[in-house]
Design a protein that fits this description.
- By secondary structure, the chain is mainly α.
- Among the domains are: 94 residues, no CATH class; 75 residues, Arc Repressor Mutant, subunit A (Orthogonal Bundle), CATH 1.10.10.580.
- It contains seven helices and three strands; from the N terminus they run H-H-H-H-H-H-E-H-E-E.
- A three-stranded antiparallel beta sheet has the order 1-3-2.
- The chain starts with 14 loop residues before the first helix and ends in a 19-residue tail after the last strand.
Length: 257
């Protein structure tokens, strides 16, 4: 910054600070002051900052370009004719004033938050006192009979709970039993789906064993399967009678699971 130009600000954070300071120096409301009056001062500050790194001047140049646009509009005559259908462009001076208002409001809020933070560093939380605990349990109204009755009630609840618990034995599933089930469904001469063979809530073992049973029947030419679409339901039908073979003619035998 130019040493001959003094800015009395606690913290200088960017080009909007400078522009806001230049406007407030006029001791007028932002809407009442002509921004053209501060353009020359602002551009002079940019000229004085040429010695700094170029990345530090980008934001200042953006604001400076807007001020030059405002000044050129004030000096050059404006065409009052507006084409039909074209939206009226927002006045750059009004846009900059609106931005400065928002910036000033947020800066005041930031100062208020900083003040709250500084006040918080000088405060101490009051720790709640520890709760008062009774030293001894009042057992004046308890007798031996009431204690025995409570123990009997607790034991009765445990016994009833043990009686209600039963162990469920898993159903043994083999390939032969599932093949028999599929054959029974094939005798009805109606197509059926794979999940029709399974129980209501089949386990992974049941699904795997049933699939092996169906594959074994396909290998023996007792059944055929169709799947109209990928990952769709599997339809099972009876194979043609002349293509079926006896289990004895098959070399491989299914294994139990």
């Amino acid at each position: 910054m130019n040493k001959n130009y003094k800015i009395e600000l606690p913290v200088f954070s960017g080009p909007l600070d400078l522009l806001l300071h230049l406007i407030e120096r006029q001791e007028l409301d932002i809407t009442a002051i002509s921004l053209v009056q501060v353009t020359d001062q602002y551009l002079a500050q940019i000229e004085a900052m040429k010695q700094n790194r170029i990345e530090h001047l980008i934001d200042f140049l953006v604001i400076g370009a807007r001020l030059v646009q405002i000044k050129s509009r004030a000096l050059l005559p404006q065409n009052p004719v507006v084409m039909i259908g074209e939206e009226e462009e927002e006045d750059p001076a009004e846009a900059l004033v609106r931005q400065l208002r928002e910036y000033k409001r947020f800066k005041q809020a930031a100062g208020w938050l900083k003040e709250r933070e500084e006040q918080g560093l000088r405060t101490y939380l009051r720790v709640a006192p520890p709760p008062k605990l009774e030293g001894r349990l009042d057992m004046s109204g308890i007798t031996v009979e009431t204690l025995l009755a409570a123990v009997r009630e607790a034991l009765t609840r445990v016994e009833n709970l043990e009686e209600s618990v039963s162990i469920v034995q898993p159903r043994r599933i083999t390939i032969e039993t599932q093949m028999s089930r599929v054959r029974q469904m094939l005798r009805k001469k109606r197509p059926f789906l794979f999940h029709d063979i399974l129980s209501h809530k089949p386990s992974r073992v049941e699904i795997a064993v049933t699939l092996l049973a169906v594959l074994e029947l396909i290998k023996r030419h007792e059944a055929r399967v169709f799947q109209p679409e990928m990952f769709g339901p599997i339809e099972i039908v009876t194979a043609e009678p002349e293509t079926a073979v006896s289990p004895a003619a098959n070399d491989s035998h299914p294994t139990n699971s």
